[in-house]
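Consider the tokenized backbone below.
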């Protein structure tokens, strides 16, 4: 399906939880945020229903994100359900990688094609400072497990504060080059102030070519990361919510006062 600006919308990003095992400084306050009640979170059947409808409308690329998708109970079963949908050419996940050591193999067996793993630095102390609670060994072990499981290509999401020339980003780049990984540099963004930029090595943040819609963990279809527009599948029904989101997708991003990165998934 095409939007008003002739952009072909073929990419659905699904946030399966607003919860996370980490507390990255640019994503969540240290104390965490008010979590949704379990009853408000979409069931696997609901997520599958939305995905099937989106695929029937032209989506062929699906990404699972969060919060942290690997803290959602039964995530492997959800991947199995989504992998069974005919018409998805690319089924990916964005994860902090901490639990990949346990999940990479079952996820690959369930039909996940590939993963993006977040890693902003190779300095163990800085990693713990950025994530507030994470240990870099766990993330690195997760990357290795993803490689072993054949979840390829593996892309590393590296958030930068100013430019990809900064030393941490350069270290991550080198690490990726020597380990057969692709790196994407994501400028640190602010949903509330509308401060966003183009992802280096990826397609995000470039409004002209944006092909994305998002499903939040509580069931809203959001046409743009930097917009307050959202259409509830529970109130409108799945088809109508998808049509309204695609039909009203803004030409370019502005601000989002409703969501946080942890419930919309980046
Ligand atoms: N928990 C998973 C992870 O960290 O990969 C998936 C969800 S996370 C919100 C998705 C991506 O958004 C991560 O790569 C993360 O680094 C990025 N992100 C979070 N907050 C951001 C911000 N303020 N600006 C830019 N990227 C951000
Ligand atoms: Fe969690 Fe990902 Fe946000 Fe970090 S960026 S707090 S890992 S959801």
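A designed sequence for it:
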């Amino acid at each position: 399906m095409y939007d008003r600006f002739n952009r072909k919308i073929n990419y659905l990003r699904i946030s399966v939880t607003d919860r996370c095992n980490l507390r990255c400084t640019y994503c969540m306050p240290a104390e965490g945020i008010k979590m949704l009640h379990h009853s408000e979170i979409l069931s696997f059947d609901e997520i599958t229903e939305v995905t099937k409808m989106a695929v029937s409308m032209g989506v062929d690329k699906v990404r699972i994100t969060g919060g942290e998708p690997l803290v959602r109970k039964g995530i492997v079963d959800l991947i199995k359900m989504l992998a069974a949908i005919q018409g998805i050419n690319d089924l990916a996940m964005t994860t902090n990688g901490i639990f990949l050591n346990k999940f990479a193999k079952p996820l690959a067996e369930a039909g996940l094609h590939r993963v993006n793993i977040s890693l902003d630095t190779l300095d163990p102390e800085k990693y713990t400072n950025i994530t507030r609670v994470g240990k870099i060994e766990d993330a690195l072990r997760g990357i290795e497990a993803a490689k072993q499981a054949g979840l390829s290509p593996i892309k590393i999401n590296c958030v930068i504060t100013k430019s990809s020339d900064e030393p941490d980003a350069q270290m991550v780049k080198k690490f990726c080059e020597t380990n057969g990984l692709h790196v994407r540099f994501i400028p640190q963004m602010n949903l509330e102030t509308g401060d966003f930029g183009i992802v280096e090595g990826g397609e995000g943040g470039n409004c002209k070519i944006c092909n994305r819609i998002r499903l939040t963990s509580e069931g809203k279809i959001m046409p743009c990361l930097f917009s307050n527009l959202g259409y509830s599948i529970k109130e409108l029904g799945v088809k109508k919510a998808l049509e309204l989101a695609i039909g009203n997708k803004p030409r370019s991003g502005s601000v989002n006062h409703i969501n946080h990165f942890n419930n919309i998934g980046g």
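The chain has a mean pLDDT of 96.
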